[in-house]
Amino acid sequence: MSQENRISGGQIDRSKTWRFTFDGVSYQGHPGDTLASALLANGVRLMGRSFKYHRPRGPLSAGSEEPNALVQLRSGARQEPNTRATVAELFDGLEATSQNAWPSLKFDAMAINDRLNTFFTAGFYYKTFMWPASFWEKVYEPIIRRAAGLGALTRQEDPDDYDKGFLHCDLLVIGAGPAGLSAALTAGRAGARVILADEDFRMGGRLNAETLEVGGQPGADWALGAVAELSAMPNVRLMTRTTVIGAFDHGIYGAVERVSDHLAVPAKGKPRQTLWRIYSRRAILAGGATERPIAFENNDRPGVMLAGALRAYANRWGVAVGDRVAVFTNNDDGLRSAMDLKARGVDVVAVIDARKDGDLLPGVRHLKGAEVVDTAGRLGLKSVTIRQADGRTETVAATALGVSGGWNPNVNISSHHRSRPVWDEGIQGFVPGEDGPPGLTAAGAAAGVLSTHGALAGGQAQAVAALADLGIAAKAGDLPRAEDAPVSIVPKWYVSGGKGRAWIDPQNDVTLKDVKLAQKENFSSVEHLKRYTTLGMATDQGKTGNVLGLAVMAGLTGKTIPETGTTIYRPPYTPVAMGTLAGRSRGKEFKPFRLTPSHKWAEEQGAVFVEVGMWLRAQWLPRPGETHWRQSVDREVLATRKSVGICDVTTLGKIDIQGTDAAAFLDKVYANNFASLAVGKCRYGLMLREDGIVYDDGTTARMGENEYVMTTTTANAVLVFRNLEYARQVLWPEMDVQLISTTEAWAQFSVAGPNARKLLQKVVDQDISDAAFPYMGAGNITVGGVRARLFRISFSGELAYEIAVPTRYGDALVRRLMEAGQEFDAIVYGTEALGVMRVEKGHVAGNELNGQSTALNMGLGKMVSKKKDSIGMVLSQREGMVDPNGYRLVGVKPVDPKGQLTAGSHFLEHGAAPVIENDGGWLTSKVYSPHLGCDIALGYLKAGDQKIGKRMRAVNLLAKTETEVEIVSPHFFDSEGERLRG
Amino acid sequence: MADTLHALTALGQAAPQTHQVGPYRIEERFDVALASVAIRKGRAADVTRAAQAAGIPLPEAARFAAGNPYSAFWVAPEMWFVEAPFATHEDIVAAVKPLFGDAASITEQTDAWVRFDLSAPDLGPLMERLCNVDFATAPDGFATRTVIEHIGCYLIRHTAGAVTLYGARSSAKSLLHCLEVTAAAVI
Amino acid sequence: MIINHPILGPRDSQEFVYLGSAELMNRPDGMTTGVEAFHNWLYNRDNPAGEHRELWYHEQGDRSWLVVTRNTVTHEIRSVELARDVAKAMGRTK
Asked: Which residues pair with B84 in a beta bridge?
């Protein structure tokens, strides 16, 4: 029979019937249903298995606090584990499957754990998987991993997109129940910018689940009217399906909007979810309260639910969870559940009331001073055993049991800054503490005010107060009439006696016994209790179980509940998918790309690109017939050394430095002297950190009396600029220096090789003969009339220039250079060939600028001028850093030209064991030099400058290589620099 | 003298392109020259005087001011980016430098940036997905640096329906992609 | 966190880069200060639980270095100043 448990009424659209499946069985439901309400309507109570004991479970709640009814939604790549059926919005064609059960939900082999429960007590993992240690990785962990965990990942890529966004408001109202709606109305009417966010797909909060009247109409109808008024206000933003997940510093809140989760597939281009960062000036927490259970034997069977949830299913969704319902309560709200169910025609077989006093409910069997001591029914509740006030027990047939242990205000968000909530004796619950996030106040049930009138009044009052802080006058208008019943509750946490298990945290299978054992073994502080028993550590974070657990612990230790205290509340309020946090930053879009000006041209040539930071640079450019990267790289190196090669060096940082103190400024930030640099010349400079370590190098050109162009390494362009601003603003604030980055403004190419000048002369408009443009010259020229800059600098050791044109002309320039270079067999080389040539020339780069090395280590000690105060100068002279036997940059060649070098190898004397005491240093960079016909490397060797000509071993224990090497000068190529000056 | 060089837009095309996603129009601009103007120490009065004489607006912090041929927006204390038509001011430094003499440091910025002009009846829904600027309450003429999908950008709000973005030129394709997919998500 | 920039108003701390204690502004003169004093300046600083003056750089903004007085326990920010103004007031020159 379809929807056998559906009764009349509720906020579902019965004009439409949707089909959905659970574990392959087809069911029907309606728009407005959740998966849980629809399954319950179809008589399905069993929805999952518990984490540890694999106990059969049905929903405990009707909201986001749900610990039990966790299912896998959808199939294929969109399959999502651990989805709470109680908040999963039904859509036509929804597919759900149970999890943590094999071979089936009704017969789960792992339920053997339930029989073995005496072994799986608190601290089980700590006690069992301790010894022997070697078992951990190979035996215990695989066992635990297989047995534990709930749903399974698909291991397929998530096909959906996730967006991020930023919102700003005067007042953020978290929760759209009576308190939140009242606050939003008050603020909205006052003209404030308001955001009202609610996790539900329908605003109204508990009003949707109640029969209570507001302003003379059903509460749900009043909520509809309030929402209609708010949606007409341009200054109010209503966000349904939006969970505020955390309170961060200074009024920043995180919120997840489930944009498309209620659809089978997101609409084209639309995200599945959006992560909002909300900047609010003030916020009101109106997140309501969560009912908590009472622990008694076998209180976890499908059909045992929170009493308020039973009532919500009946009132909001038109579902009677069982045909015979009992209610177990310690407070008046439980009675309300019983009466609401009765009013809907449900057979209420007994109301078991832990309180001895008070009036009896009319027309139902109301047992005072009674308690539930046990239940029966393997896959679903069949009967309830009651112990009456006089000690008599009786068993009553029931298919649903509503339990109400009182309501816990949802204080989570107000405690995200570590504020400890405060115990309220009157409601037997924690309410927000005084030292919550600045700017946040609580209203309604979240503040411990549990009546409808109290919620409406609190929301209004908090809104008026919050806006007054902002200088916005809001009126406290007349409130609609609503119930204002006082809270009547007696503390009742668990039912004592009995040998079976009574669940506190059903998702992690933490029972009363576990808490008792933890206390016995002295894990009685709440934080220890949590870790030892895993109480509250499941996906529901103990929303229903935590307060119950700590109340039990308080009883055991003889402390009060406030003395016992709560654990720390942390974001997120409910689970958030990793994809939501990543947003669009994943896969190829993990970060933006930066493309060089010659990218298009290089792509046409079939270049192989490499990521250098965010840049894509040509690594090598294969020619037809080349099948191995080394063929391409060797060719590029040899062609450059023989004639001429071109390389896009735009990625190097460029910083324009101007001002009358620019020269003095450079003297501060570079270790070597710059004041003496003449206009029209450039110089290599070394930058130190204040601790004396070299962190960057590059050439800086003096383009005019007070104008310089600095270059930095590609990697450090941003850092150098930051440090220059620091030096200019903070260290020497009176200097006349202006800075601006020009990295991207100019397309810059290195043109290197014996024919570099001949090639360039064909392209530029001016005379660049050696006389007109000597070594280390710099100046403004033109290329085809386009303004350009020329620097005669070399990284390769060849006669070389760097030529720059405005970036838009970069593509044209590389094409022009290649065209003009045809007669010289010009080639373009990539970063690999660049690396080979710089090692051949003995220039340091990233591997040598390793954050540990000084100028002295690099053989550049003389560059650090002690005649001026520059950053890092003083501390570079520290005792340990000027050790004459410290590391020095050396060149390394294999003794046998066929011998192979491995970067990262360590220098060892002949016969020395490969142990740290004998370590002489290491190979930093290794390349194959086609010029020399063998592997070569640079390295840092202790006292290396005294060991030129020495033979040592280069040992790499990881790569299992050992090569006999000769220590040589790091300048493998043209050590006199004749080519540069040619 | 050799032939002149042909230019490519930041998106690698010979001419700028316009992209339309629903009501959102994303227009690459290739016809604006840009230079930074920074006051040298103690020369604020000279710079103000020179700018007034030349008709170069130097708006207050976080503002853009339009003019002809020069417009400008504030980028940092004592520094502005000055815009001028590319056709007449390709060598913008050569044009602006004489106006200020040695009172200001002038640096060409034209090709450091890709410029996208965004327009729609209301750009609010797009902007709130892109960056943390409170676009709705920002006044017309608001100019700020911000971050859009990891890319540092200058954002100028001309009106609620017209925005200029300057983003790092090398990331033009990534920025356009971000603008397009985000626009598609909000239509 | 929100840093109330003296020129630009409230800005998200995500736009900033953090350096460390504002004590770093007291860089000694390298020509007249020995290694030991320099070492003390660079490495020996307080790490208070409470009010802390610290340097932040508005990298994704106007590139101002700021001196932010922040409580490291509550994250309350009591004042924000332009580091350049602070440096000048301290008597730092060229």
From this structure: B33
Helix, strand or coil, per DSSP, at residue C37: helix
Asked if residue A482 lies in contact with residue A453, where contact means CB atoms within 8 angstroms, the answer is: yes
Q: How far is C68 from chain B (nearest CA, A)?
A: 18
For residue A564, which of A547, A583, A579 has the smallest C-alpha distance?
Answer: A547
A119-172 pLDDT tens trace = 667 776 666 655 666 666 666 666 655 555 577 888 899 999 999 999 999 999
Whether residue A656 lies within 8 A of chain C, CB to CB, comes out as no
Backbone angles phi, psi at A819, to 5 degrees: -70, -50
B130, B63: one domain: no
Q: Considering its fold, how many domains does chain C have in total?
A: 1
Peptide bond into B69 cis (omega under 30): yes
The pLDDT confidence band at residue B1, using thresholds 50, 70 and 90, is: very low
Smallest Cβ distance to C94: which of A252, A718, A732? A732
Q: What is the DSSP string of A99-144?
A: -S-SB-SSSBGGGHHHHTTTTS-TTHHHHHTTSSTTHIIIIIHHHH
**Cα dihedral A61→A63→A66→A69 (10° resolution):** 80
Tokens (6 digits) for B57:
């607006």
Count of alpha carbons within 13 angstroms of residue A766, beta-carbon side? 17
User: How far from each other are the two terminal CA atoms of chain C, in whole angstroms?
Assistant: 33
CB-CB contact of A375 with A37 (8 Å): no
Q: Are A438 and C76 an interchain contact pair (Cβ–Cβ within 8 Å)?
A: yes
Distance CA A452, CA A505 (A): 29
Measured CA to CA, the distance from residue A264 to residue A892 in angstroms comes to 63
- The alpha carbon of A449 is separated from its chain's Cα centroid by a whole number of angstroms, namely 35
Q: Is residue C94 part of a domain?
A: no
**What gap in Å lies between CA A534 and CA A542, rounded to an integer?**
10
Beta carbons of A270 and A257 less than 8 angstroms apart: no
Phi and psi angles of residue B97, each rounded to the nearest 5 degrees, phi first: -55, -45
Q: Count Cβ–Cβ pairs < 8 Å, chain A vs chain B.
A: 157
Intra-chain end-to-end CA distance of chain A, in Å: 96
Rounded Cα distance, B40 and B47, in Å: 9
Task: Give the tens place of pLDDT for each residue, B70-128.
Answer: 999 999 999 999 999 999 999 999 999 999 999 999 999 999 999 999 999 999 999 99
Question: Exposure of C79 by Cβ count < 10 A (0-12 exposed, 13-18 middle, 19+ buried)?
Answer: exposed
Full domain range(s) for residue B40: 32-110
* ipTM of the complex as predicted: 0.99
A498: Cβ–Cβ under 8 A, 6 or more apart, which residues? Answer: A296, A297, A373, A374
Chain B residue nearest residue A603, CA to CA? B12
Question: Class of the A653-741 domain?
Answer: alpha beta
Query: In this predicted model, what pLDDT tens digit does every residue of A634-680 receive, in sequence order?
Result: 999 999 999 999 999 999 999 999 999 999 999 999 999 999 999 99
One-letter amino acid for residue A229 of the chain: E
Residue A441 near residue A463, CB atoms below 8 Å: no
Distance, CA of A907 to chain centre: 42
Q: How many CB pairs under 8 A join A and C?
A: 81
Query: Which residues of chain C make contact with A664, given a CB cutoff of 8 A?
Result: 94
Burial zone of A231 (CB within 10 Å; 0-12 exposed, 13-18 middle, 19+ buried): middle
CATH code for the domain of B139: 3.30.1360.120
Q: Which residues of C touch A417 (CB under 8 A)?
A: 74
| Cross-chain CB nearest to B4 (options A738, A784, A810) | A784
**Percent above pLDDT 70 for chain B:** 99
The domain A883-981: what is its CATH number? 2.40.30.110
Collapse the DSSP code of A515 into the 3-class scheme (helix H, G, I; strand E, B; otherwise coil) and give the result: helix
Whether residues B98 and B146 share a domain: the answer is no
Report the C-alpha gap between A437 and A113 in whole angstroms: 43
